[in-house]
Amino acid sequence: MRLLRVFPLVAALCLPVFCQSPADLEAVVTTPLGTFRFEFAADKAPKHVEEFIKRARAGYYDGSAFHRVVANGIIQGGDPLLKDPKTPRNLWGTGGLNLLKNEFSDLKHERGTVSTVRIPGKDNSDGSQFFVCVFPQPPLDGQFSSFGHVTEGMDVVEKISRVPAGGDGFTNELVRIEKVAIEKKKVEPFLNETVEQLRRTVTVRTNLGTIQIKMEPDWAPNHVRNFLKLTETGWYNGTAFHRLVRGFVAQGGMGDQRASGPSHPADRWVRNVKGEFRDDVKHTRGIVSMARAEDPDSANTSFFLMLGDAPHLDAKYSAFGRIVSGMEVLDAFEKEEVDGETPKRRLEVIAATIDPM
Predict the structure, then answer these.
(1) Same domain, yes or no, for 28 and 105?
(2) CA distances to 157, 254, 263 from 258, in Å
(3) 142, 225, 252, 281: least buried by Cβ within 10 Å?
(4) pTM over 0.85
(5) 31-49 burial by CB neighbour count: b if 16+ within 10 A, else e?
């Protein structure tokens, strides 16, 4: 009878993130310069991942610092000695080593790779210190135990890498690690929705007025999925229509046109979408389609509103929606002054939202 009472308690204890697989978790590193997140590669360095998660949950890294940088190259931190602000500079980077054996793998030291510091030339001297690659570092491949990859906040990592430092790479002032938290990994929106669940309407509010776009997943399900994902995460908010050709298109949806800057937390889910071209879908006024480069499978975020009919785009671009309200906004686009194909004033996507079902 007592055993029956224990089982519910055990089940309850396994509800929080403490009992989840590392594949479902992320580290959240908070600094005065911003926050970045990284996922774990437990299949490549299981012991390093296990120990990092354990230390982070115990507050081991909180109050330590990034102490060594290479501008746009790497950042290094995690030395527990640096939790003491009185630690002399000559001891920076000497703590938290000789704790783990090497776990070298085929994981490359690419942009965003998180790897473990070790004593140069000494095997099995890994420990709590880690570094993040801002730029690919091929000479380090197979020489250090990589155990993660940044999923969000590479702009913050870059910012840390550019803080003033001496010739030895040690920062003039420590960049404090305020906290390292372990959280459930963010889930990509609309990744697994059915075609029926993709039949949504998106409201796009611009400084020329508001339009509603009905998604057409029967035409291009993966482009609809992509557009809904970027809308749901707020990726399009604050971007601009950077190209305007009267009687043809108004094109927008580029990150470098965002008022708050090019980086966005949802950049982790920006990827090219394979072309979904159809002969029976026509690029007529009011149709919404995805822009791309010469590669037919290179569409990712940029879209265009058809201001007129353009049959030469049919079966070459992936149309994925149609404007069902706000056609007068297309008329407003037509009246805007341009310099070549560039609007003379900023035409902004103030906000894009998905209408309730």
Answers:
(1) yes
(2) 20, 7, 9
(3) 142
(4) no
(5) bebeebbbbbbbebbeebb
